[in-house]
User: Fold these one by one.
Assistant:
Number 1:
Amino acid sequence: MQIPQMDLSRQHDQIKQELIDTFIEVITANQYILGERVQQFEKRLAKLTETNFAVGVASGTDALRLSLAALDVKCGDEVITTPFSFVASADVIVRAGATPVFVDINPTTYNISGEKLKSAVTRKTKAVIVVHLYGLPCNMTAIQPLCKKRDIALIEDCAQALGAEVEGRHVGGWGTIGCHSFFPTKTLGGFGDGGACTLNDAELAGRLSSLRVHGSVKKYYSEEIGFKSRLDALQAALLSVKLKLFPRWAKMRTAAAKLYTERLQDLPIVLPITPPGRLHAYHQYTIRTPQRDKLFTHLHKAGISPAIYYPTPIHLQPAFSFLGLGAGSFPEAEKAAKEVITLPLFPGITVDEIDYVAEKVREFFKP
């Protein structure tokens, strides 16, 4: 049996004709940049996340980058984030001219430690970027009040977590700005790059809308230095089609994760957890074992495509060597990077496929 890490065709086959019809409608209308299609999608995304505004941009990375610009993060400022994430979470801080300050993770959730975050705040702290890794929301009931009390902007990196909740509230609405990615493999994926910011502040939403078009409110009149970061009308239209099936696909992810947990729970591995009050989006089903590399090879030989998110913490990446943070700086993130492995999980994965993956994992630990 050959089992991929992700099979997008199982989603797209369900709506293939509607996607084709939508594509034809967009190219017939000859409106490709922003416009009505983008506005419609923004309204639907804001409704899903229960926020007042959504601003479509070119990628999840740009959502983070424009958020820092809209919050006036600049040289001399510090922005706190996690070292255990995709590098974009920290790249944007450096690009803004600020200094990334890393805080180690909670070893059971892989998210930034709320307790350790408190001691990292200084008078230079302008913002905190939390990452809802693998689809599990951070401890927002602790982090959000801390940021509010210290008057620190809170940015949520929701790239892997659309659909996740904390105490019944969707991610992307807890912080000052929520940043979303529509990279094809995300819980809501487009057909190329795309992203969005969700928020409740009208003035901040207006500034984000301006920044994405070179700092312009009206055509050919730039009020500040901005960016070119617009969500294409075609991507917005196709995402709107997929958004209708998003709740169903989210339930399929949860059901698949439940099956994995049932079949693997008696093995010497660490399974994903969901703390009370949180709803996991299961963008990825990530387990943990000190024998990760051997397990990876075993599964690969069996026709299974596991993945490792992420094998090198950000502070140990060559691009961040200028910070002078060597091995041992963030032990929990470094240990997790050596032990995590993600099993195939996507809408449409079959029970037989889950059984086969679980069987091969069991075979590794109990020959």
Note: Residues 246-264 form the longest helix (19 residues).
Number 2:
Amino acid sequence: MRRATILIGLFLALAPAAPARAQEPAQPPPPPAAEPWPTLDVGDLWHRFRPKHLPPAETGAVRRETAEHFVVLAPSIGARPTTGLTLGVNGNMAFFEGDPHSTHISSVAGGLRVSQKKQVLSNVRFAIFTDDDGWFLQGDNRLNWTSLNTYELGSDATTTDAANVKYSFFRLYETAYKTVKPGLFLGGGINVNARSNIRAGDTEKGFDQSAYLAYTREHGFPSDKQVSTGGSVGLLFDTRDNAINALHGWLASAAYRTFFKGLGGDATWQELAVDVRTYRPLTRTGSQRVAFWLMSDMVTGGVAPFLDLPTTGGDVRSGRGYSEGRYRGEHLVYGEVEYRGALTPNGLLGFVAFVNTSTIGSVETGAKLFETYAPAAGTGLRVLLNKRSRTNLTTDWGWGKGGAHGFYLGIQEAF
């Protein structure tokens, strides 16, 4: 617990800036510099080589559309330990639902990929602020035909314990938040995780000897499907200047989810998820900055199905350096620090360097939080696709313990 106190204390040491901002008007905080930054993106380069000569009457309409909607579509070629090589397309649309001076920027991101391991992965995520930030709507929706290596519970499981399982996965997470005061939102939503046609995958270790099947049988769950259905209540505090790629500000959220057997789920259980992020500029423009992320995910009551237990990479972007599901248990705490810098003064090219760590506690195995850790580190490059929304094409390389590693390519920052 001493290590936990130190870790949380580092974040709380940064906290004095947050209360003051909570009293500001309902609008994004002013940028840290008088001049806008960045100043050049991929679209600007394209127009330099392929200039458009529009009639004066049309120019205004095009500019209004460009000022309100920013659309990015890019091929996705990457590799992750969970998927192998992937090929597909990722898209991102950023827009304002109201006056940009009093409304945060909204975004919708999605993608469709096929993988070397014969997976089909699709997702749509959105974060929408209505006019004057009256409401905030958030969604995480997935439809996958996928596979995943499963391991013993805890943050000290070895790769020799791996057993692959294949399944179809449907997720529907939708939450609506209402503003209760500037920067502070209160809301609730629905949560559905449904996995079907769960079966043995392609590994040397047999499905019958897998940690997944042992846990599933012990708690009386069906082995060929796992369903969790329920609702949530949440509290959100957000003073970031940009939800896509923040230069400064805070995000803090807490969500309490309850899943019910009576609603079609396999069990009744509860989960508490806490997420805190802050962004600190090191220069006036924000071209050099540091981002901090602290997250915890805890099963607080009941018994969750194995594949719904908190895990590294469960939100897709955490735990760079490890595959999704590499470490899993009833209690998870995760921390990450990332340095973000510009390689060119105009912001077209950038880089990141990050370190992260996870610790897992499990009632099943007796593993305790903060006894063992799964650290990782890595670096990445950035190409600015749209300067107004600050949307980047991201490429990251991460390395963890035990030879774990991964290459990640996408649109938008990890956090």
Note: The two ends are 26 Å apart (CA to CA).
